[in-house]
């Protein structure tokens, strides 16, 4: 079992660091899943039991100049590591001006992702900084829990307004309530609402557009939902705020799928990164 990657391009290093930093804001621990073509950051939260779920997918060729890995065996050519993304983020942030950065799976006092950076220097003597990020190797018998989550059979799919705008709204609402209702329809409308015994506040968005796949029709083409009908989910406002605060992916598209009174499925798409985040409803 081996893994070694090298990043030379500064823009790729900065982008990779932003992705890892985003993940670190969403969870204290997650699984880094490696295969020959892609990297995945996975949080297989039990959404049905109130936990959040996350699936972040990166194409290694868009980040690494060199990338080599060998899994447990040819039939399972993957490596799954439990890692604290904050530790990896911290290591990457300290080497942003490096001439090159190598990330390697090593065995020291425990399994580690070793981040080695060659830093620029005024002399002919190279200067190398090394960080060891402890990881746990996940045995193959547990890999079945790390599969990509299936796309929920949603009632509404809608494009999101600018995430910064949503963040500003949620930041204000969190001072009034611990819970927030997200509702939307297939006519491009979305509302964010809080209701307590003392106050009722709502923010309305219009003309957001709906992704083509969410056309409100069943597979045989027959309409299944009134486009003006609202689907809603009541969520823990802190979990939504956590998602918004940590976002550094700068997506080209951001979408929201709603399973009525069940789960909200947030999707951020960049040309070389996709991030899915699941927040369950609360009673």
UniProtKB/TrEMBL annotation:
<feature type="region of interest" description="Disordered">
    <location>
        <begin position="205"/>
        <end position="228"/>
    </location>
</feature>
<dbReference type="GO" id="GO:0000723">
    <property type="term" value="P:telomere maintenance"/>
</dbReference>
<dbReference type="GO" id="GO:0009314">
    <property type="term" value="P:response to radiation"/>
</dbReference>
<dbReference type="GO" id="GO:0035861">
    <property type="term" value="C:site of double-strand break"/>
</dbReference>
<dbReference type="GO" id="GO:0030896">
    <property type="term" value="C:checkpoint clamp complex"/>
</dbReference>
<protein>
    <recommendedName>
        <fullName>Checkpoint protein</fullName>
    </recommendedName>
</protein>
<dbReference type="GO" id="GO:0031573">
    <property type="term" value="P:mitotic intra-S DNA damage checkpoint signaling"/>
</dbReference>
<dbReference type="GO" id="GO:0033314">
    <property type="term" value="P:mitotic DNA replication checkpoint signaling"/>
</dbReference>
<keyword id="KW-0227">DNA damage</keyword>
<comment type="similarity">
    <text>Belongs to the HUS1 family.</text>
</comment>
<comment type="function">
    <text>Component of the 9-1-1 cell-cycle checkpoint response complex that plays a major role in DNA repair. The 9-1-1 complex is recruited to DNA lesion upon damage by the RAD17-replication factor C (RFC) clamp loader complex. Acts then as a sliding clamp platform on DNA for several proteins involved in long-patch base excision repair (LP-BER).</text>
</comment>
<dbReference type="GO" id="GO:0000724">
    <property type="term" value="P:double-strand break repair via homologous recombination"/>
</dbReference>
<dbReference type="InterPro" id="IPR007150">
    <property type="entry name" value="HUS1/Mec3"/>
</dbReference>
<comment type="subunit">
    <text>Component of the toroidal 9-1-1 (RAD9-RAD1-HUS1) complex, composed of RAD9A, RAD1 and HUS1. The 9-1-1 complex associates with LIG1, POLB, FEN1, RAD17, HDAC1, RPA1 and RPA2. The 9-1-1 complex associates with the RAD17-RFC complex. HUS1 interacts with POLB, HDAC1, FEN1, PCNA and RAD9B. HUS1 does not interact with RAD17. Interacts with DNAJC7.</text>
</comment>
<dbReference type="InterPro" id="IPR016580">
    <property type="entry name" value="HUS1"/>
</dbReference>
<dbReference type="GO" id="GO:0005730">
    <property type="term" value="C:nucleolus"/>
</dbReference>
<dbReference type="GO" id="GO:0005829">
    <property type="term" value="C:cytosol"/>
</dbReference>
<dbReference type="GO" id="GO:0006289">
    <property type="term" value="P:nucleotide-excision repair"/>
</dbReference>
<keyword id="KW-0539">Nucleus</keyword>
<dbReference type="Pfam" id="PF04005">
    <property type="entry name" value="Hus1"/>
</dbReference>
<keyword id="KW-0963">Cytoplasm</keyword>
<dbReference type="GO" id="GO:0044778">
    <property type="term" value="P:meiotic DNA integrity checkpoint signaling"/>
</dbReference>
<dbReference type="InterPro" id="IPR046938">
    <property type="entry name" value="DNA_clamp_sf"/>
</dbReference>
